[in-house]
Specification:
- 17% of the residues lie in helices and 14% in strands.
- The chain has two helices and ten strands, in the order ααββββββββββ.
- It has helices at residues 2-28, 31-45, and strands at 68-72, 99-105, 127-129, 151-153, 160-161, 176-178, 183-186, 203-205, 210-211, 227-229.
- Bound molecules: 2-acetamido-2-deoxy-beta-D-glucopyranose (4 copies).
- One 2-acetamido-2-deoxy-beta-D-glucopyranose is lined by residues 194-195.
Length: 250
Amino acid sequence: MAIPRLYGPCIVVSLLVSLLTPAFAQSSSSSDVELLLGKIKASLQGDAENILLSSWNSTVPLCQWRGLKWVFSNETPLSCSDVSSPHWANASLYRDPSLHLFSLQLPSANLTGSLPRELGEFSMLQSIYLGINSLSGTVPLELGYSTSLSDIDLSGNLVNGVLPPSIWNLCERLVSLRLHGNSLFGSLPEPALPNSSCGSLQVLDLGANKFTGEFPEFITRFLGLKELDLSNNMFSGAIPQSLTSLDLES
Ligand SMILES: *[C@@H]1O[C@H](CO)[C@@H](O)[C@H](O)[C@H]1NC(C)=O
Ligand SMILES: *[C@@H]1O[C@H](CO)[C@@H](O)[C@H](O)[C@H]1NC(C)=O
Ligand SMILES: *[C@@H]1O[C@H](CO)[C@@H](O)[C@H](O)[C@H]1NC(C)=O
Ligand SMILES: *[C@@H]1O[C@H](CO)[C@@H](O)[C@H](O)[C@H]1NC(C)=O
């Protein structure tokens, strides 16, 4: 009989695999996947089980993890567009060490946790869109240590605390920063480099928070800004004349 003869070697192989699996699986998971499963998921989720985040599970093929986009180390995007994509049902893709998280996109997803500091650790993460959730806690200092973030939207959450000065570390790469409608307070931190122009920054929306202190004059040096919203805060002092030198569209 053909089938038993096939089983023999299979059993040996699967025994070997199961003996090797614990160490192998750990060292060969993409480190971004480990970070997501180990830290990010629990932190974003908070106390309530979240239906979207429950898709982040190594028993689910990576393409079906909700709200994530991936790229390979050579910057080729992982195509997960639909069920016809060759990667859609690939159950071992999550172990591919050349895959990196590119985008975290879970707006209006009922997230009730907080922003984990490990969000700053993804080497190729360009965008974080977590608007309209119930995330609380602070904007982690470590976000500013990210090497690739260019778009951040945390609007419409319950984020509080001060905006960490490290956020301006992202200055030259940052295209849009939306923190509208949170409970951030204190004065806006100045960029560490005095003449920073944040050349790529086009959108800065800090409206509807609880910022205080002098009107942040350094923003008038952000010459690439197209959209600026500082409304509904508690800034004091005059609005500098130099604001008119910006070429704002709104
Ligand atoms: C992953 O999914 C399996 C099967 O649905 C479930 O038993 C397990 O608890 C999940 N693991 C995590 C970490 O959520
Ligand atoms: C699944 O993904 C792994 C890791 O990228 C790859 O080596 C393998 O060829 C893929 N399998 C299929 C059937 O596409
Ligand atoms: C959001 O959370 C609430 C309370 O935990 C739950 O009743 C509701 O079904 C959730 N909605 C979605 C879209 O997950
Ligand atoms: C910042 O600008 C001032 C005045 O415009 C100039 O004197 C100074 O050298 C500049 N500093 C840096 C670090 O570019």
